[in-house]
Amino acid sequence: METVSLIVPVYCLEKELGRCLDSLLRQTYRALEILLVDDGSTDGSLSVCRRFAETDDRMRVLHHENRGVSYTRNRGLSCATGTYVMFVDGDDEVTPDMVERYASAAASTGADVVIGGLRYIEGGIETDKIPSATGVFEGKAFWELVCRDTTGVYGYVPNKLYRRELLEAHEVRFPEAMAAQEDFAFALSAYGAAKTLCLTDCCGYRYYRVPGKRSAPLPDLLENQRKLYALAARNGVSAQGLSCVGRRVAGHVYGILFSARDEETVRALGELPGLREQLACATGLPAESRRILSRFRREKYRAILRYFRRRRRLKRALGREGGPS
Questions:
Q1: How many Å apart are CA 22 and CA 27, to the nearest integer?
Q2: What angle do CA 294, 244, 187 make, to 5 degrees?
Q3: Is the dihedral of CA 221, 152, 90, 64 positive or negative?
Q4: What integer pLDDT is reported at residue 321 of this predicted model?
């Protein structure tokens, strides 16, 4: 039985942490290494970690000053020794058979990455998000699924099992400079390195969504979609699949243009390599978006700034301030 390393980043989760750790200790899969990595918590989280570790020698506690969730997960990766690695957020929980089902899928298929579903819980409403297909995939077939996905299952961090050797060989780590979607960036790097990937309908992760917990800066969202586009194109994804990504790229570009306050910001966006090609493949955009992005491709930066300044003034006058609509 191969060891699975469970990496649990912890930051000020004193009230929720016990629920999470209890669920890990109830796993039917016993060959576990559980790394509790405290990111400089200012409440009693570290004490909770140490108390649980005293009851089970499979748990190890690491602690450092506050550095953010990406640094914390990376530190856990650096200390992990298992054949496989999974990530569990300290304010979530898992069903007793979750690790066993993922490890069994990895062992039976030899896949480098196993991707499952999760139960998304927000405001008392529970929604299951699962991959649209199951089985073993590689190359173009896998990237088609990622490009067309509307559930987000390929981006979440906890519904995946990774072969640790793959992560180490390709130096896959969470980008610490990203403010959001660092989990999707990490996953894309792993997918790009993997030979085979297994998709399963296992939905054993209970993801508790806290509204407004973290904002998602548009440049980070754009960076990930551009990375996805490049990987998909490299793997021969269809024009329809690339268009799905192109539409998301276009949406993020439009949002950045809407919020831009100076020409330098717009010009820097226009200088991103390959962006025009990615925008050109986007089909089915609203008429206004097409007009703005056409100006952007033709480097009519000042005209774009003037247009959105007028729009923002009008929104303020009407008492409808906010983002693009």
A1: 9
A2: 120
A3: negative
A4: 57
**All structural domains of the chain:** 4-208 (3.90.550.10), 218-316 (no CATH)
The pLDDT tens digits of the residues spanning 294-324 come to 999 999 999 999 999 988 888 788 776 555 6
How many Cβ atoms sit within 10 Å of the Cβ of residue 236? 11
Cβ-proximal residues to 185 (8 Å cutoff; 6+ apart), any chain: 174, 175, 178, 223, 224, 227
Alpha carbons 145 and 97: distance in angstroms, whole number: 26
The model's pTM: 0.92
Model pLDDT for residues 202-223, shown as the tens digit of each residue: 999 999 987 666 566 899 999 9
Res 41 pLDDT > 90: yes
Measured torsion, CA atoms of residues 214, 64, 89, 58, in degrees rounded to the nearest 10: 180
Residue 231 CA to residue 101 CA, distance in Å, equals 29
252, 253, 267: which is closest to 301 by C-alpha? Answer: 267
Where would I find the H helices in the chain? 17-25, 45-53, 69-79, 98-109, 139-148, 164-169, 182-193, 218-234, 239-259, 263-270, 275-280, 287-297, 301-317
Q: What are phi and psi of 127, to 5 degrees?
A: -130, 130
Q: Which amino acid is at 244?
A: C
- Structure tokens belonging to residue 118: 């999760």
Summarize the confidence of residues 187-193 as an average pLDDT: 98
